[in-house]
Amino acid sequence: MPQKSIGAGKPSKRQAEILAFIEEFQKNNRYSPSLEEIARHFEISIPTVHQHVAYLRKKGLLAKKKGERRAMQVLNDRSRDVVEIPLMGLIAAGGPIEAIRNPEPIKVPRAMLPRGGNYFALRIAGVSMIEEGIFDGDIVIVREQQTVNPGETAVAYLPDKNEVTLKKIYPESNRVRLVPANRTMKPFYETNVEVQGRVVAVLRHGF
């Protein structure tokens, strides 16, 4: 592939996730993941993975060594495409749990972060947001902000209980309705809620 094409294209959010997964997989296993392994990790179809991989090759971010199996090669220096944000601890996607703040750095694809604002990450505990594609053990990327639009998925701090939870937020006249994205669970109401941020991206468990 001509050198001038390297780094010529910017990956989409999903492509950046796949590229990061391939690089991490290679680091841990000394060989590349198969399309099936990528599909299983992201819970998407093999044809979809093939399409993303083809785009990454076209953009000069990924190549395949001829005559070798499991030989995808990340081409560019991705350090500039990765940003470090704090992983603050656990947040409940279920009933609220005690607020935990134990920051440690985590690297995420820069393409996952919209321009502007400050970001942090939280690891999910619970299953109340599964219909939004947020599962137990996943990591959510959160943009710091004190307000969200009705129905957006947000980090809600409950000062009276010193607890945090992840829910869809619906302000009402004298209370806030916190709604799970799980049909088996009911919404609940709080009068004292502080929005700490809006979810902008999800890193699947095992990323």
Structural descriptors:
about 210 residues, alpha+beta, Arc Repressor Mutant, subunit A, Umud Fragment, subunit A, 2 domains, ten-stranded mixed sheet, two-stranded antiparallel sheet, 3 helices, elongated
Q: Based on CA inertia axes, which overall geometry fits?
A: elongated
- Radius of gyration over C-alpha positions, nearest whole angstrom: 19 Å
Stretches where pLDDT is under 50 for at least 5 consecutive residues are: 1-8
Number of helices: 3
Helicity range of the residues? 10-25%
Distance between the termini: 29 Å
User: CATH homologous superfamily of the largest domain?
Assistant: Umud Fragment, subunit A
CATH class of the largest domain: Mainly Beta
Q: How many individual β-strands? A: 12
Query: Average pLDDT, to the nearest integer?
Result: 82
Please give the domain count: 2
Question: Which range does the strand content fall in?
Answer: 25-35%
- Major sheet attributes: 10 strands, mixed
Architecture per CATH nomenclature, i.e. the level-2 architecture of the largest domain: Ribbon
Based on helices, strands and strand pairing, what is the structural class? alpha+beta
Following the backbone from N to C, one meets helices and strands in this order, namely HHHEEEEEEEEEEEE
CATH fold assignment of the largest domain: Umud Fragment, subunit A
